[in-house]
Amino acid sequence: MNKCLLLALAGLLTGLVVSNAEAAVRPHAFTLDLGAGGYFFESQQNIEDAPFFTLGLGYNLGTHWAIEGTAGYLTTQLKDDENFDLNAYIGRLDLIRHFGPDNAFVPYVAIGLGGLVFDPERNRAPVDKDGFLDWGLGFKLALSDNIALRADARHYFTVENESLDGSEYNNFSATAGLQFQFGGGVETAGVIDQDRDGVIDSVDRCQGSAAGTAVDAFGCPEDSDRDGVYDQDDKCPGTLAGTSVDASGCAADSDGDSVIDDQDQCPDTPAGTEVDAVGCPLPVPTLLDSDRDGVADSADKCPGTPSEVPVNSVGCPRDSDGDLVFDIDDKCPGTPAGVSVDSDGCPVPQPEKASLDLAIEFGTDSAAISAANNPELEKAAAFINAHPGVRIIIEGHTDDVGSASYNQQLSLRRAGSVRTALVERYGVPSDRVIARGYGETRPVADNATPEGRLANRRVVVRIEE
Fold first, then answer.
1. Quick check: 214 and 222 in contact, CB under 8 A?
2. CA distances from 329 to 113, 318, 335, 431, 456 (A)
3. Which of 100-109, 213-222, 350-359 shows the highest mean pLDDT?
4. What counts of helices (H) and strands (E) characterise the chain?
5. Which of 15, 24, 37, 407 is the most exposed, fewest CB within 10 Å of its CB?
6. Which CATH architecture has domain 2-187?
């Protein structure tokens, strides 16, 4: 049986690929269905699953709704007694809701009720009648205007025995087959439902509705809140009855003050005007300007400015050259941007940018300073004392002989030796002197010659910038 079901489903999927019919549902057509598949019993019933055959007759109330009566037959036996054969007859009546009925592929849902009769062969037991409620899912795939493939899966909620007071079971069926349509649609005299909205033309007050549009009983697009704007165009569904709305179905606000017209007691308020809850302009507050500089106290960052002093937009005296000294106090107006100034707005003298090269000779791979270099140290101490109040950088430099990392460390040790000598021998404050090593990264001459390498092995004393 499972192989039969797989073959049937494969056939349906093949049809889905090759079908080019326009629609699987024709309004007001009668339908005949032939199906085969399987019926599956709940395990507690002790009944074997079995092949299931169906014959259905239906009528399309429109394109979306249909009613259908179905008769089914199967033969099976008890699980614990293979010789106990049963014939089962099923009858059900269903209401079907189609989705996308104008397409060749139409899914649907169904709900209904019916009965199941068990008739044991050879009268081995009394005939048993069960009632059930059923629901299911399926689809129809049009092969032509009159023939469609159909697949259906159904769930049955059954109540055992005639008095409906027995056990409750959940059974299932799956079938596939063909559906044939007769009459209805354009095959009857005249066009019955030309726009295919599910309402026949003789009743349709809005013929020509766009395909897929939800319509009411008279074929017109639905207007759930009755504001005169169809649901498909209504951007504000659920508007209260009697409310004036615009073309999009939203409460109208003609003057754009965010108070709808029905509540607006001051219509035609000029754009941008602040309004209260009933759409009327708010009273304009009187602005207080205590220092009478033309800037309200609420925005004045410099209250108390004399009234004759020109101020900027925040009530502070102007600073035309941007040096943070108000014009009224600035003794050097027009100072260039970026120049440091004093409290009078005048440029602050900058310390002299100067440096001193020391001719200190070090031994190979050594940072020790011999007594022969004392004159150079004295020159450095004099240079530092001549520039009080500034920090001094002592730079160590090397030539390019050796690795870069080694030369950097060597230059730092030599700069450190000079710093230590200046602090310990000449009383230079330690917090004013910083030693830095630059290795071979800042040559002042060509390292390709002995003279150039000698010039590059140097110590420089300079003022920190």
1. yes
2. 98, 10, 13, 37, 52
3. 100-109
4. 4, 12
5. 15
6. Beta Barrel (2.40)
At 20 the pLDDT is 47
- Report the chain's mean pLDDT, rounded to a whole number: 83
CA distance 193 to 64: 12
Q: Do residues 223 and 238 make contact, with C-beta atoms less than 8 angstroms apart? A: no
Highest mean pLDDT range out of 136-145, 323-332, 380-389?
136-145
Q: CA 115 to CA 41: how far, in whole Å?
A: 15
Distance of CA 102 to the CA centre of its chain: 34
In which residue ranges of the chain is CATH 3.30.1330.60 found? 355-463
CB-CB contact of 81 with 95 (8 Å): no
Identify the residue whose tokens are 């996308």: 100
pLDDT(187) > 70: no
Amino acid at 9: L
At 394, is the secondary structure helix, strand, or coil?
strand
Instruction: Report the alpha-carbon distance of residue 144 to residue 156 in Å, rounded.
Output: 32
CB atoms within 10 A of CB 51: 15
Residue 351 binned pLDDT confidence (cut-offs 50, 70, 90): low
Alpha-carbon 143 to chain mean position? 42
At 100, list the tokens: 């996308």
* Domain ranges in the chain with CATH number 2.40.160.20: 2-187
Tell me how far apart the alpha carbons of residues 227 and 464 are, in angstroms, rounded to a whole number.
81
* Top mean-pLDDT range of 58-67, 157-166, 334-343: 58-67
Q: Do the beta carbons of residue 367 and residue 417 sit within 8 Å?
A: yes
Is residue 13 predicted with pLDDT exceeding 50?
no
**Separation of alpha carbons 87 and 428, rounded Å:** 118
17 Cβ partners below 8 Å, 6+ apart? none
Confidence check: pLDDT of 26 > 50: yes
Identify the architecture of domain 355-463 in CATH.
2-Layer Sandwich (3.30)
Average pLDDT estimate for 92-105: 94
- The residue among 33 and 464 whose pLDDT is bigger is 33
Alpha carbon distances (Å) from 60 to 28, 85, 86, 105, 443: 5, 38, 35, 16, 99
Mean pLDDT (whole number) for 205-221? 78
Query: Whole-angstrom Cα distance, residue 140 to residue 451?
Result: 100
Instruction: Please name the residue that has the structure tokens 């709900």.
Output: 111
List the structure tokens of 26: 């024709």
Rounded Cα distance, 195 and 181, in Å: 19
**Quick one: average pLDDT of 165-178?**
86
